[in-house]
């Protein structure tokens, strides 16, 4: 659907850009149908009305004027110069297009800290749609960087430096485990809502991380509040409240504070590998304090005398000892479930019968967790249950771990640590996952009332969802509405993956690897050689092994948009976020690579928490200095080949950031320090100069540069690269004129000229152009040259002309592709005067629309051309040329030649008159239309069948016609055309008088109705529809006259009701000349109604009604 929507928008813009300003909405609908052959399919792309669809397109503007809707196109970099030219167009003199804007200057040796010469700070560019859809709100850590900030968030800092070059690897290999990094991170958080300092605006939402706050962390008052069965929540909360009212301990070292420092040091050293889970981590310290400090084997920092007031502040916690292993998997599993309060362990075993043998399988259910021994087979139930219990215990220990009895975090630490953790989860996080992540990160437990503590923070929102809680960091603009933000969590995943943190080094740079390339303003990277990235690679290695063995038991109950999952793609496992789903596939965003891939639903699995702890690795950036090339770089092959999977150095460019910028503005360097931005300016400009004409039926706006007599048409696409090419040619021409490089001139020979591009002068206008030699005379003195950018040819004497090898003058200019694209106009036959007709229809200074329709046998594209007439209507040039050639051929034939004075045209035009009976005889007629007794039309009843058959064929023949190929000078009074009436049917129509292209008097010659049409509404009529004579005969009722001086409105209404759409017998009284139209006659008839048992004379009916009298 998105592809169809894009094609529709492109076609609409094609209709709009070539106009002088906005056009009515109805005109746009007509032009679109002319161009594409169907109405604008707004319903197929998901909209209820055309106005809703146009409103949804950022590059289209809908406005109302005098009660009518108008549509206009916003100008982008591709169409700016085209629209400007269209606005300045004047009929008559042709112009040569040359852009006066100076081209960018290219340096062959970029400096290490390259900057664009023309800094485009105020450049307006349209971001790609993908970052909006897949962005995971990346962060920037500037803890070591003091340069001006960018509009992005700053969180936990980590060290980062530009390491050694890593060899290019494929997507699968880059997930293999690597050696663990030994670098560490110092973590802290500063309230992001605090007043801005150091001149930083609050508007930018910037913060500076502080590395020194952990000095106070060791001196904090430790509060033990580990909940147990004998300890209720209200008691512990009350105890904490009382302790908080006591004075703080100062920072002077003493025995007690030294002891506490040892406690903290000891707790930070404890890990799962060293601790069995059976001992209390503070037992020796608690005993030391209880004994007055005399039994401790530890050395104190200074003399220590126990202080009872201080000792009272430390309460030995009641520790629940974790069960030890018994060697029986089922017993250990039950003890584990009881310790973690997971509920009863339900175990069932069953015997399975197969064709070959019998085996046992076991199934264990613990709360929400279910495990099975399948596909393993066992000879007895006990073995199956034992194996299943082992697997269940192994999985549960990896999820819940053998938690040690840890210190409880205090209120200050909770309020400091949790907000930055939450800020990385856009849509919120489940409480259970946050608790697990917190314990893993800080090696401390949260107290039982931690939710109440964190909910007191103005930047945190806690909401109950189903049977648990979701917690989320509030945006600054939502803080005042806290408590009223129900339903703001969107889709909450079973697990949430932290957002990416871009970590800047001291010089504001980042080492990364490019993982996905969409455009110059959408380059996805991942950081390399940081502690976090190395840990992530190790975690992904474990993930590969885990899911290879256990994926069968991890099928999700449902797949929800915006939620996180594990996905298997081409033999490799990835972390993904779901973008869209259907019955068979899931559109996934690979959060660690930036790719967007469709993956079968069967390959989507639950993402385990232990593999969701590392942040999303991919972040998106845009290249500075390439703003004008953003649109052209979409799906660029050069950009893709130059960047993908390459190691790069990124340097932040904060001074170029714009509001709501989803992409980091960067300068990018390769591992040798060369500026990638600068290299790409040249390469992408050349690539953007490659003329691109859509091959999928979508119209492209072009300029015609040359027309050949065989039907070949050369067109140019005026892109950004085309403009740069022309500007550089102008500069080069000025340089050559001012200082001719005669040292570059050498004899041009047949052997030397093959494939060489020259700069040569055109004899007609004396300007210099790019040319190639395509043919030689036998003596090799004359050569036929081809103008690469215009498509025309010329013959020159090579001994008399100066030709500079372009690669010696300007090698970059030499690399530009030819700008003239050769197509063939799609015509049945090429008229002899094709060049004149096509040049008249398509002036080279006015844009036309081209649509490819197929290919010739020689693989040359066939094309239809469309252009606007002076009144703004869109017409098909192909049909116009065909019709004009056909009319000329018909007019040159004496047999068909008919000269009719436009002021004296019969209503039947060139059609013959129906056969009439003799005077005084009967004639059966049908009345299709009536005005009054002196003005109505009749059709000969005897030819009604022929008329009906002709009308059926006419509808079938013209049902798919949507535009007219005719121009105003092709409308000839007296000619018969086809036109569609308001009822949607096609009728034969006589052109009576041409006033202008928007007003042509016509007559519907078979049904007796005059009207006014535009030239776009008249379609050439095929010869086979000219055989039947015109059927509408003018008539008046004889033998009567109006009772009043003239027929009144009531008289007219009564007569219409009496005769219209009915069949009568009539007597032909006379044949008179029409007073209004000299070329027409009027039949005087007496109508008789024979439809009832008694015949009725219409004369008598009119007289009896008082409408008429005998006359």
Automatic annotation (TrEMBL):
Residues 4-75 form the HTH OST-type domain. SMART domains: TUDOR. GO terms for cellular component: cytoplasm. PROSITE patterns: HTH_OST, TUDOR. SUPFAM superfamilies: Tudor/PWWP/MBT. Keywords: Cytoplasm, Differentiation, Repeat, Spermatogenesis. GO terms for biological process: cell differentiation; spermatogenesis. Residues 228-245 have a biased composition (Low complexity). Residues 122-151, 167-257 are annotated as: Disordered. It comes from the Eukaryota. It is found in: Cytoplasm. Pfam families: OST-HTH (PF12872), TUDOR (PF00567). InterPro entries: LOTUS-like (IPR041966), OST-HTH/LOTUS_dom (IPR025605), SNase_OB-fold_sf (IPR035437), Tudor (IPR002999), Tudor_domain_containing (IPR050621). Residues 556-614, 751-811, 969-1028 form the Tudor domain. Its main location: cytoplasm. Residues 122-149, 180-191, 246-257 have a biased composition (Polar residues). PANTHER family: FI20010P1-RELATED, TUDOR DOMAIN CONTAINING PROTEIN. This is Tudor domain-containing protein 7. It comes from Acanthoscelides obtectus (Bean weevil).
């Amino acid at each position: 659907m998105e592809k169809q929507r894009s094609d529709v928008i492109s076609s609409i813009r094609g209709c709009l850009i070539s106009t002088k300003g906005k056009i009515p909405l109805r005109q746009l609908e007509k032009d679109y149908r002319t161009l594409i052959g169907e109405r604008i399919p707004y319903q197929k792309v998901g909209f209820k009305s055309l106005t809703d669809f146009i409103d949804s397109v950022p590059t289209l503007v809908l406005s109302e004027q005098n009660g009518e809707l108008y549509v206009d196109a916003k100008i982008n970099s591709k169409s700016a110069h085209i629209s400007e030219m269209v606005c300045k167009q004047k009929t008559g003199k042709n112009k040569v297009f040359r852009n006066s804007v100076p081209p960018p200057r290219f340096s062959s040796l970029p400096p290490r800290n390259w900057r664009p010469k023309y800094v485009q700070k105020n450049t307006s560019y349209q971001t790609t749609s993908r970052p909006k859809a897949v962005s995971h709100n990346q962060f920037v850590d500037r803890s070591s960087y003091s340069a001006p900030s960018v509009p992005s968030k700053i969180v936990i800092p980590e060290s980062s430096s530009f390491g050694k070059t890593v060899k290019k690897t494929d997507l699968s290999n880059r997930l293999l485990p690597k050696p663990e990094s030994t670098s560490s991170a110092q973590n802290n958080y500063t309230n992001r809502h605090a007043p801005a300092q150091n001149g930083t605006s609050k508007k930018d939402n910037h913060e500076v991380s502080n590395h020194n706050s952990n000095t106070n962390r060791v001196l904090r008052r430790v509060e033990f509040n580990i909940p147990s069965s004998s300890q209720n929540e209200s008691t512990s909360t009350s105890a904490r409240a009382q302790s908080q009212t006591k004075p703080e301990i100062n920072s002077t070292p003493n025995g007690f504070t030294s002891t506490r420092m040892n406690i903290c040091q000891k707790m930070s050293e404890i890990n799962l590998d060293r601790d069995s889970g059976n001992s209390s981590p503070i037992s020796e310290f608690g005993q030391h304090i209880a004994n007055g400090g005399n039994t401790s084997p530890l050395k104190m920092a200074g003399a220590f005398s126990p202080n009872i007031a201080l000792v009272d502040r430390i309460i030995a916690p009641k520790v629940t000892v974790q069960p030890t292993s018994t060697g029986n998997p089922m017993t250990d599993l039950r003890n584990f479930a009881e310790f973690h309060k997971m509920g009863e362990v339900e175990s069932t075993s069953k015997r399975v019968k197969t064709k070959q043998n019998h085996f046992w399988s076991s199934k264990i259910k613990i709360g929400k967790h279910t495990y099975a021994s399948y596909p393993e087979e066992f000879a007895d139930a006990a073995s199956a249950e034992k194996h299943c219990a082992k697997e269940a215990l192994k999985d549960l220990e990896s999820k819940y771990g053998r938690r040690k009895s840890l210190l409880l975090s205090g209120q200050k630490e909770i309020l400091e640590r949790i907000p930055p953790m939450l800020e990385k989860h856009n849509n919120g996080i489940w409480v259970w996952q946050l608790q697990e992540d917190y314990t893993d990160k800080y090696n401390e437990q949260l107290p039982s009332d931690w939710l109440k503590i964190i909910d007191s923070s103005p930047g945190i929102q806690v909401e109950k969802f189903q049977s648990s809680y979701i917690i989320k960091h509030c945006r600054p603009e939502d803080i005042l509405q806290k408590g009223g933000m129900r339903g703001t969590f969107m889709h909450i995943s079973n697990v949430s993956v932290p957002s990416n943190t871009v970590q800047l080094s001291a010089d504001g740079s980042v080492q990364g690897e490019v993982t996905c390339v969409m455009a110059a303003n959408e380059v996805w990277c991942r950081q390399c050689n940081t502690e976090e990235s190395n840990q992530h690679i190790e975690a992904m290695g474990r993930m590969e092994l885990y899911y290879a063995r256990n994926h069968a038991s991890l099928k999700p109950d449902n797949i929800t948009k915006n939620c996180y999952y594990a996905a298997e793609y081409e033999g490799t496992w990835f972390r993904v976020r779901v973008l869209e789903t259907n019955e068979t596939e899931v559109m996934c965003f690979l959060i660690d690579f930036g790719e967007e891939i469709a993956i079968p639903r069967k390959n989507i699995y639950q993402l385990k928490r232990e593999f969701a702890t590392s942040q999303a690795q991919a972040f998106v950036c845009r290249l500075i200095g390439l703003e004008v090339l953003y649109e052209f770089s979409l799906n660029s092959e050069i950009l893709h080949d130059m960047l993908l999977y390459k190691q790069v150095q990124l340097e932040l460019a904060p001074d170029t950031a714009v509001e709501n910028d989803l992409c980091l503005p960067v300068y990018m360097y390769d591992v040798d320090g060369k500026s990638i931005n600068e290299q790409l300016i040249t390469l992408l400009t050349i690539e953007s100069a490659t003329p691109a004409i859509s091959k999928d039926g979508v119209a492209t706006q072009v300029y015609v540069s040359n027309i050949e007599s065989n039907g070949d048409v050369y067109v140019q696409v005026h892109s950004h690269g085309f403009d740069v090419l022309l500007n550089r040619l102008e500069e080069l021409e000025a340089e050559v004129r001012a200082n001719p490089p005669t040292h570059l001139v050498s004899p041009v020979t047949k052997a030397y000229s093959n494939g060489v591009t020259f700069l040569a002068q055109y004899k007609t206008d004396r300007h210099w152009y790019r040319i190639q030699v395509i043919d030689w005379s036998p003596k090799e003195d004359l050569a036929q040259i081809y103008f690469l950018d215009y498509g025309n040819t010329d013959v020159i004497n090579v001994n008399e002309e100066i030709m500079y090898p372009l690669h010696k003058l300007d090698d970059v200019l030499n690399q530009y592709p030819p700008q003239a694209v050769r197509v063939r106009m799609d015509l049945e036959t090429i008229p002899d005067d094709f060049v004149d007709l096509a040049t008249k229809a398509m002036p080279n200074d006015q844009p036309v629309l081209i649509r490819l329709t197929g290919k010739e046998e020689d693989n040359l594209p066939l094309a239809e051309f469309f252009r606007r007439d002076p009144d703004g209507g869109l017409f098909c040039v192909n049909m116009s040329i065909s019709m004009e050639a056909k009319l000329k051929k018909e007019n040159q034939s004496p047999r068909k030649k008919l000269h009719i004075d436009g002021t004296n045209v019969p209503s039947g035009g060139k059609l013959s008159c129906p056969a009439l009976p003799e005077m005084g005889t009967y004639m059966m007629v049908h009345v299709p239309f009536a005005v009054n007794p002196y003005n109505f039309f009749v059709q000969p009843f005897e030819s009604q069948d022929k008329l009906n058959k002709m009308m059926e064929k006419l509808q079938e023949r013209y049902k798919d016609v949507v535009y007219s190929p005719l121009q105003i000078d092709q409308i000839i009074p007296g000619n018969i055309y086809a036109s569609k009436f308001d009822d949607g049917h096609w009728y034969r129509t006589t052109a009576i008088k041409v006033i202008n292209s928007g007003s042509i008097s016509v007559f519907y010659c078979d049904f007796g109705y005059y009207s006014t049409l535009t030239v776009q509404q008249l379609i050439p009529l095929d010869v086979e529809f000219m055989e039947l004579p015109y059927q509408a005969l003018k008539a008046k009722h004889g033998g009567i006259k109006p009772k009043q001086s003239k027929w009144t409105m009531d008289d007219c209404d009564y007569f219409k009701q009496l005769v219209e759409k009915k069949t009568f017998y009539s007597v032909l009284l006379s044949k008179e000349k029409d007073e209004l139209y000299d070329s027409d006659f009027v039949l005087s008839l007496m109508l008789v109604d024979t439809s009832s048992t008694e015949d009725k004379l219409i004369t008598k009916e009119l007289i009896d009604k008082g409408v008429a009298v005998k006359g």
